[in-house]
């Protein structure tokens, strides 16, 4: 429902839409049973968690610079997106939260207990508004449950980004000060340290966005926000007792965080927990393995090139990297690479038997097929059967938020580096450069991704963030706040193919896996054949080789992706502008 008319409905008997209290008959719903006991406050605040949409975070990077997919994102495909098809201008969750905050005042419940749950509600109001500001920029700030008599507020225009984000941070400060739960109990509930971790995320986003989007004329407030981001992260680092999970060694620990049924308690701060008994599952395998369902998203080679060698040196320092075969380029690298894509001796269970599982070209267009969220048993590959929990906030992000905020402030020290980026790289098996700040610019990283950045520390922090948090829903937001939207136009390139008609063994198990052709050769049993002719049945073939008969795979070079400045914000849906012209449309839309 839309802000400009949702509140024209007077919810006198049904105030709890979308929450766990719907068993109370609408005609007899009163505040008493809810706000006069802690159990009622628990029930009400539990209704807020649906806002997080946590079970779908495994697919939240579907629109990003580092993934090729079966189609181009409509948002940046010329002519495919407009205010008429835009969405997200929904406000029902906000009324639910504001109603709770206004009415959580029954003296039968001790003040500290009430403030704990108000803190949780204000955490979620901050969550709600942060998502709105990221998407639309200026939005109306509403901090009370509106009724039909609130005519002026019902038809108001948008408040400034500064005012709204100041209010978001005030909500988070209250949450940090008043939520009593620390890290005890389930990782599926908001705790004090989840609030601090989330504050570090919000302040980092807003601080860097104001720094790099100079057109907003807000750069003077950037340093204060970055300082708050670093301070919030440091509270978690110093007090919460989290640490990076390393119990499965450098070869498996990273991925274990994403495939474990229960949240890995040492590292996961907040999680969407799946439960087979309750049939509360996700579709991770179906999304990341199906040739027909989902986006068939797979990494591009330009991003894979950013994974360091195991000794901490850039992979692209090797002059032969451009023509390195897949079987060779995945060796001797940051151990997160083998835990993020199919490569090497990766195997999957098929009816209880382990089978070699090289990249499948019935799924991948580039050769770099993700495994980060997919369970290794093929049983889970159909429908939403996955039992692995989906992390919403984890300690690794807190370390990255701290490092980036301090790097942007120019105050990151060797000790800070070792306690943040160094720990992440050590968990990934990297042996060099973990204890001291980098002093040399990686020219590949700079020229390919961040040509305006001349500080090697910021470059390396951004490298680390991309690798550590890939497929967790951060990438598009990072591109926006760094003002690097042009990255969304990067070529969708894939592995190097030395010649046509020559089957390749991608995982060196002695079995040939894939061959590329323009005129179909005599087939070898077990090999997948991919046509790379310029035309197929008179139509442009989206799958080609960069040099015609050899080179990197390319995908969808024939379909343009165009980034314009207007894409840093979404348009407000046209219907809402018509209903309330005071909202005004975002520039360019």
Automatic annotation (TrEMBL):
Pfam family, one: SusD-like_2
Signal peptide: 1-18
Domain of life: Bacteria
Record key words, sorted: Cell outer membrane, Membrane, Signal
InterPro entries: SusD-like_2, SusD_RagB_dom, TPR-like_helical_dom_sf
RagB/SusD domain sequence ranges: 299-589
Compartments where located: Cell outer membrane
Listed name of the protein: RagB/SusD family nutrient uptake outer membrane protein
Organism listed in the record: Aquirufa ecclesiirivi
């Amino acid at each position: 429902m839309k802000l400009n008319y949702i509140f024209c409905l007077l919810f006198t008997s049904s105030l709890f839409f979308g929450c766990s209290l719907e068993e109370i008959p609408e005609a007899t719903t009163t505040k008493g049973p809810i706000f006069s006991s802690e159990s009622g406050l628990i029930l009400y605040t539990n209704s807020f968690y649906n806002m997080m949409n946590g079970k779908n975070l495994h697919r939240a990077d579907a629109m990003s610079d580092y993934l090729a997919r079966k189609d181009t994102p409509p948002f940046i495909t010329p002519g495919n997106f407009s205010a008429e098809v835009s969405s997200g201008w929904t406000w029902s969750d906000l009324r639910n939260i504001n109603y709770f905050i206004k009415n959580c005042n029954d003296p039968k419940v001790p003040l500290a207990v009430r403030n704990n749950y108000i803190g949780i509600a204000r955490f979620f109001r901050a969550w709600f508004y942060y998502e709105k500001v990221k998407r639309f920029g200026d939005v109306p700030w509403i901090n009370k449950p509106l009724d039909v008599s609130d005519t002026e507020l019902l038809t108001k225009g948008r408040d400034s980004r500064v005012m709204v984000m100041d209010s978001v941070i005030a909500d988070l400060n209250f949450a940090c000060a008043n939520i009593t739960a620390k890290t005890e109990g389930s990782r599926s509930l908001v705790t004090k340290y989840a609030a601090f971790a989330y504050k570090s995320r919000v302040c980092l986003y807003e601080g860097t966005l104001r720094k790099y989007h100079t057109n907003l004329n807000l750069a003077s407030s950037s340093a204060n926000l970055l300082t708050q981001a670093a301070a919030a992260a440091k509270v978690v680092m110093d007090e919460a007792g989290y640490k990076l999970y390393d119990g499965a060694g450098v070869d498996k620990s990273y991925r274990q965080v994403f495939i474990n049924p229960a949240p890995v308690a040492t590292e996961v701060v907040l999680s969407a927990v799946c439960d087979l008994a309750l049939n509360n599952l996700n579709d991770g395998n179906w999304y990341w393995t199906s040739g027909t369902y989902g986006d068939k998203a797979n990494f591009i080679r330009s991003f894979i090139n950013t994974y360091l060698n195991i000794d901490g040196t850039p992979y692209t320092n090797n002059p032969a990297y451009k023509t390195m075969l897949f079987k060779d380029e995945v060796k001797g690298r940051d151990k997160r690479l083998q835990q993020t894509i199919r490569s090497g001796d990766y195997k999957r269970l098929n009816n209880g038997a382990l089978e070699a599982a090289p990249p499948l070209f019935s799924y991948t267009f580039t050769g770099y097929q993700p495994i980060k969220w997919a369970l290794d048993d093929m049983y889970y590959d159909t429908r939403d059967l996955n039992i692995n929990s989906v992390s919403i906030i984890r300690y690794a992000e807190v370390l990255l938020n701290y490092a980036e905020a301090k790097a942007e402030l120019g105050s990151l020290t060797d000790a800070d580096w070792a306690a943040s980026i160094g720990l992440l790289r050590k968990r990934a098996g990297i042996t060099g450069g973990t204890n001291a700040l980098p002093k040399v610019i990686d020219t590949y990283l700079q020229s390919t991704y961040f040509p305006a950045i001349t500080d090697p520390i910021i470059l390396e922090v951004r490298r680390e963030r991309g690798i550590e948090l890939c497929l967790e829903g951060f990438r598009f937001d990072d591109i926006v706040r760094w003002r690097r939207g042009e990255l969304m136009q990067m070529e969708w390139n894939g592995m190097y193919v030395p010649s046509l008609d020559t089957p390749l063994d991608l995982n060196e198990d002695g079995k040939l896996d894939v061959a590329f052709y323009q005129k179909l050769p005599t087939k070898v049993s077990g090999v997948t054949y991919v046509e790379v002719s310029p035309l197929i049945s008179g139509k442009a073939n989206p799958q080609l080789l960069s040099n015609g008969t050899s080179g990197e795979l390319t995908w969808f070079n024939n379909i343009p992706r165009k980034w314009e400045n207007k894409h840093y914000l979404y348009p407000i849906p046209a219907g809402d502008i018509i209903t309330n012209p005071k909202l005004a449309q975002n520039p360019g839309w």
